[in-house]
Design a protein that fits this description.
Strand content of chain B: 5-15%
Distance between the termini of chain A: 63 Å
Strand order of the largest sheet of chain B: 1-3-2
Strand content of chain A: 5-15%
Largest sheet of chain A: 8 strands, mixed
Radius of gyration of chain B: 17 Å
Radius of gyration of chain A: 38 Å
Number of helices of chain A: 29
Number of helices of chain B: 4
Helix content of chain B: 55-70%
Largest sheet of chain B: 3 strands, antiparallel
Shape of chain B: elongated
Largest interface: A-B, 24 and 21 residues
Structural class of chain B: alpha+beta
Oligomer: heterodimer
């Protein structure tokens, strides 16, 4: 209490600038006068009287100082005066202040920008309550090399009853036709089991979500809308509850609307943009009956019981799996080795983006480091110019710690100003910057400058200011007083430590920028190689437009339910679209046939049963399957190697045939000819399909990997609900969507036509994240190189300055000017050599760490390393050349006179 | 700067308060002289340290000051005890006597008394 009261009094004294000093002085003077008088009366001489009075009163200055210290907060006072002094001295050298603040602003602004991306994606990818309790349940058959095979409905019930999870939900993703509005619209749609929203733990803004205890076998005919769809299609009708909508020709009741900020979880951006959820038990129409062996192509997620750790949950789950295997030995043969594993849901969201983001953060942190080093260098240079000032302060009795504190205050002020400037620029430019971030970055949260990000920026500023201000302050305060004062602060002993530190700083800058440049170079080469990859198909002048054939809940009402019915529609679509202006060729495929344009997901894979090899459809490899019309291969320019492609005579009632790519032939019939082999595709009806053709591998699934096994089936022999219309020719991308819509809807007005895109665009967007990180790392590397160049320029200039006298003497004694040039350049080259050596070693480590991000280029790619070293050395030489020239042109007579 | 031990500070404050209680309003020099007279040479206090103490006591409200004329007609600041100061003096005097009594007892005690 007492302490607190005293503190507040001191604080108020400080604030009011009050400390009674004036009064103290008056009173003591008064005292002195009275005592002197008394002494005089006692008979002393006036001098003696004053002397004795003063002795008796004691050291008045000490009393005053003591009083002052007691009445105020000396630490705060010193800080305030240091700050005031620092601000004044920064104002006095605006050039230095501007360069330093700009450099720091660049470093901290860029780091904060990347951190805000990481904060929204890696650190907080899920925006649901208690996200750590959310898990994906994955089940694999490692014995037959099948991953994420999906669960059957009885297995889902086992999970629900296991006691491990609070709620468990299965979900799919796809399209649905919303009809009844002006245009039939294709909606990103998720069929889910009723516990879906209970797992996520999100409440709707209107109405309710599904009842987790609902046991309807098929769809329960209730839907929940997203806020966006509610506003767009229903005008934000507040009385929406219970109203109906038509979805794939079935009538559903609207029971709830999700809140505006809600985004669905999911691996692809499309999934995260889901706008409509319908609940189903997946145990009745349109789903097949629930059998343990019939795995659904659906994902499963769950919320763990509160307080249960992931590891403990996994243990319980392993025990459950073991007991199920004993209970149903028929269903779970030892050979397939069924396993069920838990993965954090946030983990599945972040997925393969993590290494790219970590690389980016590493790169930007290096830029920050280099900019801090540069500022430290500037501070050192400034300290050497201020040697005299510091020496005078020291001569007047400033202790070393006091000097360090003052210099540190100055650098902290500089760094905090820089950090704030960086933040301000980031804040005002955030809209502009956000547009560069590819949509495919997985995130549910908006990237924004949150409190966490702000705190990050401030902490980084203060930490950097302390770390990089301390060494220069320490060195600057270590002065040899006499020589500094005598030599006016030039060429003193103290500066030896400083120039050594400056050299070390520049060398480290060079090394760091070399590492960054190597990283950027390797990424650039990977990107270029990817860009130049021989695709195996020709994307130019091709547009893809999508439509969706509804799946009604009652299969008997499906007008496109049989292959024959669907074939009629497909032929008509093709015939009409061929007549569109500019169209030379037209083909049809399912969504999987759209090269690089469909999110690759293990759940999309189809079981492959090879005749004579596999008997059961639930323990077999899974393979990418595309359903295409005969024109597809020619339209995309894919090469037939052996056998034949589909033709118009392969129809529903002729023997079904398939075409495989070379990768499939290699993987599934190693050393054999796949032609003529028979397969089944996991249908419930046992239909054998004969392989009649082999095509060359193409990069249709992944730019980085051409050898992903593929099986193609004919659209006239196999049913598909997602339909992609491919058109080749001199097309007008702006006009095509409307033209195709007219043609398709003149056949069936209920069909939606959506997402028209050129294959070139698809290709570009599939490279978006790579391009983003490559461009960023490259610009970071360029910045680093620039900063390092400035650093070496500054240091060499400084060294030349220090050696002016020496150079002048050398010249006076007859040294060749070219020798002087060589000497100075040699110093720059020496630093560049050491920096490059250290940087190359670091770059080797870093390039191996980022090997996973590279394509077609080895982490030890010699040309990249060599080119980067050459670039760095030439920049170092160029930066040393200007001061070297100045040294060479020195006039010895003038210089020596001036000294 | 090191703070002086509280005991000494407290003692000096007590002396000042008591002086003002006994003699009424006094200026700084007067207080210093009284303390010197009463304690004799036993207390070698730098008289300068008195003034920060006076300032502090006034801040705390134990004493008040006003301008007045000294014996030889000089303008001087006169300090007097306030009601708070009187209460404080009583309390501190009690405390002091208690402490002194305890210490005195310790000095009186002989080894055999404790057996």
């Amino acid at each position: 209490m007492r302490f607190l009261r005293r503190f507040f009094r001191r604080l108020s004294n400080l604030a009011r600038g009050l400390n009674g000093d004036q009064r103290l002085r008056e009173e003591m003077a008064e005292h002195l006068a009275l005592q002197t008088e008394a002494n005089l009366r006692a008979g002393m001489t006036p001098t003696e009287a004053r002397r004795q009075a003063a002795i008796k009163l004691g050291a008045t200055e000490a009393v005053r100082e003591y009083h002052h210290a007691e009445q105020s907060l000396p630490f705060v006072e010193n800080l305030v005066s240091d700050l005031r002094y620092a601000a004044r001295s920064l104002f006095r050298s605006p050039g230095f202040a501007l360069v330093a603040i700009a450099t720091i602003a660049l470093g901290i602004g860029a780091t904060t920008a990347i951190y805000s991306v990481i904060d929204a994606t890696l650190l907080h990818p899920l925006s649901y309550p208690q996200p750590e309790e959310l898990v994906r349940i994955h089940d694999d058959l490692p014995g037959v090399g099948a991953k994420d095979v999906g669960m059957s409905i009885p297995e889902l019930q086992d999970m629900q009853n296991s006691g491990i999870f609070e709620y468990v939900s299965m979900y799919g993703f796809g399209s649905a036709n919303l009809t009844g509005a002006a245009q039939p619209a294709r909606i990103a749609f998720r069929p889910v089991t009723p516990a879906y929203f209970a797992v996520l733990g999100v409440a709707p803004q209107l109405g309710r979500t599904f009842d987790p205890k609902d046991r309807t076998l098929g769809f329960n005919l209730e839907v929940v809308l997203s806020d966006g769809l509610w506003k767009r299609a229903f005008g934000a009708d507040p009385h929406i509850f219970g109203k109906t909508l038509r979805l794939d020709n079935d009538v559903y009741h609207i029971v709830g609307v999700m809140p505006p900020g809600f985004r669905d979880q999911g691996q692809s951006n499309e999934e995260r943009g889901t706008e409509l959820w319908a609940a189903a038990g997946f145990a009745g129409d349109p789903a097949p009956p629930p059998m343990r062996s019939s795995r659904r192509a659906l994902a499963t997620m769950a919320r763990l019981k509160p307080g249960l750790s992931m590891a403990a949950a996994q243990q319980h789950l392993d025990a459950l799996v073991d007991s199920l295997k004993k209970q149903y030995p028929e269903e779970y043969p030892a050979k397939a080795a069924w396993t069920v594993s838990l993965i954090g849901l946030s983990e599945t969201m972040v997925g393969n983006i993590r290494p790219s983001l970590i690389l980016l953060f590493g790169a930007v942190a290096t830029v920050l480091l280099i900019s801090c080093v540069n500022v430290a260098n500037l501070l050192l240079a400034r300290a050497s110019r201020r040697g005299r000032e510091i020496a005078v302060r020291q001569a007047l009795g400033a202790t070393r710690s006091r000097l360090v504190r003052q210099l540190l205050t100055e650098s902290l002020l500089l760094f905090i100003l820089g950090g704030l400037t960086g933040l301000a620029i980031l804040f005002s430019g955030r809209r502009f910057l956000l547009q560069f971030i590819p949509d495919s970055l997985p995130r549910l949260n908006d990237i924004s400058i949150s409190w966490g990000v702000l705190a990050f920026a401030l902490i980084v500023s203060v930490a950097a200011g302390t770390i990089f201000g301390l060494a220069p302050a320490w060195l600057a305060s270590r002065l040899d007083l006499t020589s500094t004062l005598r030599q006016e602060g030039r060429g003193s002993h103290g500066s030896q430590g400083r120039s050594r530190l400056r050299r070390v700083l520049v060398i480290s800058e060079l090394a760091f920028s070399l590492v960054l440049m190597v990283a950027a170079g390797l990424l650039l080469r990977s990107f270029w190689d990817l860009f130049q990859v021989q695709l195996g198909f020709n994307p130019s002048h091709v547009m893809a437009v999508q439509t969706w054939l509804p799946i009604p809940n009652d299969p008997t009402t499906d007008i496109y339910g049989t292959v024959a019915q669907e074939s009629g529609l497909m032929r008509e679509i093709l015939r009409r679209n061929r007549t569109l202006p500019g169209v030379q060729e037209a083909a049809i495929g399912d969504l999987a046939a759209l090269p690089l344009g469909h999110g690759r997901n293990d759940l999309n894979l189809v079981p492959l049963i090879r005749e004579g090899l596999e008997a059961r459809r639930d323990q077999v490899p899974r393979i990418d399957t595309a359903i295409v019309s005969p024109e597809y291969f020619h339209l995309l320019g894919m090469t037939l190697l052996r056998g034949r492609l589909f033709n118009d005579q392969d129809v529903a009632d002729t023997p079904p045939i398939a075409v495989v790519n070379e990768a499939a032939a290699r993987s599934y019939w190693p050393g054999e000819e796949p032609m003529g082999k028979r397969i089944r595709m996991g249908d419930t009806k046992p239909v054998w399909v004969t392989i009649e053709g082999v095509i060359a591998d193409a990069h249709t699934e992944s730019l980085a990997d051409a050898s992903i096994p593929q099986i193609y089936l004919s659209v006239y022999q196999r049913h598909s609900n997602d339909v992609t219309i491919f058109l080749r020719g001199q097309l007008d991308p702006a006009a095509i969507p409307a033209q195709v819509r007219t043609q398709v809807q003149s056949i069936d007005a209920e069909l939606p036509v959506f997402r028209a895109q050129t294959l070139d665009d698809v290709l570009t967007s599939s490279l978006a994240v790579r391009r983003f990180s490559m461009e960023l790392v490259a610009s970071f590397a360029a910045t680093a190189l620039l900063l390092a160049g400035l650093g070496i320029y500054g240091t060499i200039s400084y060294l030349v300055n220090e050696q002016t006298r020496e150079i002048a003497i050398r010249l006076a004694l007859g040294a060749q000017r070219s020798a002087i040039l060589k000497m100075v350049l040699g110093q720059g080259l020496g630093m560049a050599a050491i920096g490059a050596g250290a940087g190359l070693a670091g770059a080797l480590v870093v390039s191996h760490l980022m090997a996973g991000l590279l394509f077609g280029v080895s982490p030890t790619d010699l040309p990249t390393f060599a080119a980067v070293t050459v670039v760095l050395t030439s920049v170092a030489l160029a930066a040393s050349y200007i001061p070297a020239l100045r040294a060479m042109r020195l006039d010895p007579i003038k210089t020596l006179h001036a000294e | 700067m090191k703070e002086k031990p509280d005991v000494l500070q407290g003692t000096l404050a007590l002396m000042v308060l008591k002086t003002l209680d006994v003699l009424g309003a006094q200026h700084g020099y007067g207080i210093a002289r009284r303390i010197e007279q009463i304690s004799g040479d036993l207390l070698a206090v730098n008289q300068g340290t008195l003034y920060p103490l006076l300032l502090r006591l006034e801040h705390e409200g134990s004493i008040a000051s006003e301008w007045g004329a000294s014996e030889n007609n000089r303008r001087a600041r006169f300090y007097r005890l306030t009601a708070t100061g009187r209460k404080q003096l009583q309390a501190e005097a009690r405390d002091w006597e208690q402490t002194a009594a305890i210490i005195a007892r310790f000095f009186k005690v002989k080894a055999e008394d404790l057996l």
